[in-house]
Model the fold of this input.
Amino acid sequence: MLLMFMQEGARATIDDALSFALEAATPYVKAGFTVREDYWGGDLGVKQQKAIVHQLFKGNEYWFWMGTDAENAKISVHVYDSDGNLAEVESWQKQHFSAARVVPKRTGSYYLIVEIEKSDQERTHWALAYGFR
Amino acid sequence: MQSDFRCVGLMKRIILSLFLLAPGVILASDPPQHIDVSKLPGQATVVDNVIVPVPSEVFGVLDKLGSPNWHEVLRTAKANPTGERAQVALLLGSVIAEGFIAVEAQEGEEVKKIGRSVLNLAAAVGVRKSVTARSNAIIEAADKKDWESVRKELDGALQDVKQAMIELHDEQLAQLVSLGGWLRGTEALTAVVMKNYSNDAAELLHQPTLLEYFQRRVDGLDSRLKSNVLVAKIQKRLPEIKPLIGGTGGDISAKSVEQIHDIMQDLVKRINSREK
Done:
């Protein structure tokens, strides 16, 4: 979705970031999660955040997988409900990856907060994919 | 048999646990337990980039809540390209949504027809090439009754069509594809909930983000598209839904579900009709 605003060079690195996000998703696909073909992506400076509003449905279980192609970056994704309460039941971080799992207590809007916590690049490309079951 | 399933579930948990315990994996640093959502920095918000859930995301929950009769919801009418490009784009989205319903009903022949319709409709708006492989994959997977693959290919077809439209500088048409899918998906959802009402099932209609997103998109269409009679009708009727989908924590009554259904049914009929 964001890609139309970006030049080819930027697109290539977001695609790289996406490939990391999808790599993080692989074990969960085997566990029955359906990964969406659509995704979010962009670039951020260190300590910068993006908030994404997303619809979740009670009765589903969701994983959000964030990836980056930046070698030494530390990235994070966390999920909050519409009242601003932390909604994830677990999360983890690893080089190139971050992920959070949500079992929504209510159907409605949720906030996905993505952040570049640490990076040696001025702008760090990221992509966020999600899956449900 | 049941214990076998339990074993598979246990194995999956073990595999996932091993992945999480792999070198370099750490539990994420403690995030704040609460944020003030009214004070999110303006620049940080990317609300415009809303990912519209695929119908199977909602249908899967309905399946968990009961056993809906998807055959009753499935519409078998042939979808022909009709009207202006705006209508064809809306129809394309609704036909892809129909594909998800056909998968729920496990109607292989219908899925194949839908795969071919997707191709015809995509051709009518100049993006046939982008979706040929997906259309073939839908038909092939339907032949094998590989429903999970059909779902994946339908989602992929949706993204490929939209991306091709964006590349042709037809981004607004791509938005109409999403809108058509959402309208048909929501119509199907209301039909199922009306048959067997429960608070949990009705709550699936609480979709304020998506409703606001589509209202914003339709309001922002260029005047040429907005002057289309069908688009104008959609623009007029979308605000009627807002008071019906419930506030935070509010139940959505059976009457509201029925009213949403009437609006959606009216719009989807118009999308499929030669008359406006």
